[in-house]
Amino acid sequence: MNFLIDNWMLLAMALASGLALLLPVLNKGSGLDPNAMVQLMNREKAVVIDVCEPDEFARGHVMGAKNVPLGQLEDKLPLVVKNKSTPVIMVCQVGARSARAAASARKLGYENAQSLAGGLKAWVLASMPTEKA
Fold first, then answer.
1. How far, CA to CA in Å, does 86 sit from each of 7, 48, 81, 116?
2. Averaged over 56-71, what is the pLDDT?
3. Of 35, 41, 57, 98, which is most buried with the most CB atoms under 10 A?
4. pTM value?
5. HSE (CB half, 13 Å, CA atoms) of 5?
């Protein structure tokens, strides 16, 4: 017990480094990467929903994406995607809003709702096509 008390800093550093090693593994399930998203779009005809505000959407978005701002998702998603078994991919600028949107969509009954990890930023870094409104 004295060893732990005397070396509390070493113990804290060991725990912090262990957590840092586990973090990427824990975050891996937090969304699709751009290549997986393209495959889902091509193979399963996934619908891409951009949950950014209209001015952000106009500056640039994934080609073919439909704009449904996060605040209007519960009202407008059923109008845009009528079949709840259709794969739905949520996208925003960096991935935070789209993760919340995917969770909201799953609560609405869209069991195949996912989010693009890293958002539009990751999409652009992967050299994927965008368009402006």
1. 55, 11, 8, 16
2. 96
3. 98
4. 0.77
5. 2
